[in-house]
Specification:
By secondary structure, the chain is of the alpha+beta class. It has a single domain, classed as 2-Layer Sandwich (YaeB-like fold). It is built from three helices and five strands, in the order βααββββα. It has a five-stranded mixed sheet. A hairpin with a 3-residue loop joins strand 3 and strand 4. The radius of gyration is 13 Å and the shape is globular. It starts with a strand and ends with a helix. The relative contact order is 0.22.
């Protein structure tokens, strides 16, 4: 059964920041393609939401997975609501451990 995928406001802000960073380093087209691919990857988690590594050491119920070995995607699965929330999108070695411990699930 498919889950609903939603992006927290923090994750949406991180995707916007990633777009700006890549657009300034490469081009707006490359940035849009990359961010769109990350969003599509996240939306693909609707079919198999428990993908990734459990990271209860950071916060209960947290899962992390990677996209193209450069981006860590942090998610939380609510089985009762059949919803996966993308909590954060961390690019290029950001310290997501400390950042995620401060995030809420919204």
């Amino acid at each position: 059964m498919t889950y609903t995928v939603r992006f927290s406001s923090d994750a949406a802000n991180q995707l916007e920041a990633l777009y700006r960073y890549v657009a300034s380093s490469a081009s707006p087209t490359v940035a849009a393609d990359y961010v769109d691919a990350i969003v599509a990857h996240c939306e693909g988690l609707a079919v198999f939401p428990h993908r990734g590594t459990m990271r209860d050491d950071i916060r209960p119920g947290l899962r992390t997975s990677s996209y193209k070995k450069r981006t860590v995607i942090a998610t939380f699965v609510d089985d009762e609501a059949r919803q996966l929330t993308v909590l954060g999108v961390f690019y290029g070695g950001q310290d997501y451990d400390s950042l995620l411990s401060a995030f809420d699930n919204g």
